[in-house]
Give the backbone structure.
Amino acid sequence: MADAGNAVQTLADVIAETAPAELVGDGFLTVVGAIADGAKRVDGLTRRAALAGVLGDTGEMNVQGEIVQVLDAAGTDAFVSSLRDCGAVAALACEELEEAVFVSDAADHPYIALFDPVDGSSNIDVAVTIGSIFAIYKRTDDAPVTETTLLRPGREQCGAVYVVYGSSTVLVVATEGRVDGFTLDPVSGEFLHSHNEIRIPSKCAAYSVNEGNQGNWHPEMQAAVADLRDAYGLRYVGSLVADFHRDLLKGGIFLYPGDVKSPAGKLRLGYEANPLCYVAEQAGGAGTTGVERILDVQPELLHQRTPLIVGNADVVERVVAKLAE
Ligand code: AHM
Ligand code: MG
């Protein structure tokens, strides 16, 4: 945590000092800065909520077949415009947009971003924590980006970011081998370094799953969760970013399995599972579908769903072993 006696570093300071040199030289900070700008807009809307007219739904259905909340639409606008206009992103894809947005094939636009602009949007109307999640990739060559070249396994990410809009607003950035957190200072309006080199604690504090779905789980998953229930307390916010952030800082495991009604589960591989599993792995944790490391899954569709089990590596392993029994 930040030491009140020392000057607190900004997001730009820390990324410039700690991110891999080839990313810094290629404008990685520009991409993270664009995410931070969008997050400040979403934070402003979230804090004012009903006063800003962002509660409720738009009456429309997104490509996922889910009702679009007003803040989903506003968050999409905020991040699409900040990333499209930052000058370093060649293409982006977003949970709320059916089609990817292709910005520029110029070589000075080396990054690709896949994101969930407002995660946990069913919690907006009741003032419960929500988030935003971003997977960042580098182009492998100067060839035009297409929808097919956006389908990259999560292990190829060069960085991932999430923002949690909770009792404070915290932006977490992961690059190879390193995870840091930045708290939005309402006084200066800047994200300031508050969580240095985050490592998931070795002790798992809680498991996190929607127990209401138990009746639809396969017997092996029922047995695996019964095993967790015997060993740990239960915490479930119902906003993935909030549940994940708690697990990252306190130790824990989050599960959204497939079941008999939804074999692929609910969460999206590209926008949710990949970036959060990348963060987890850089912090010493692990993420799996139950049979395969999430970051090794080869996506076939932009909006593909996946079962997700992520958190403390030993507990993830314990669940995988139970599922295989
Ligand atoms: P969203 O991205 O459309 O908000 O949906 C994803 C959310 C996650 O934040 C959360 O983990 C999950 O859906 C909760 O689902 P459920 O209400 O079925 O437990
Ligand atoms: Mg989501």
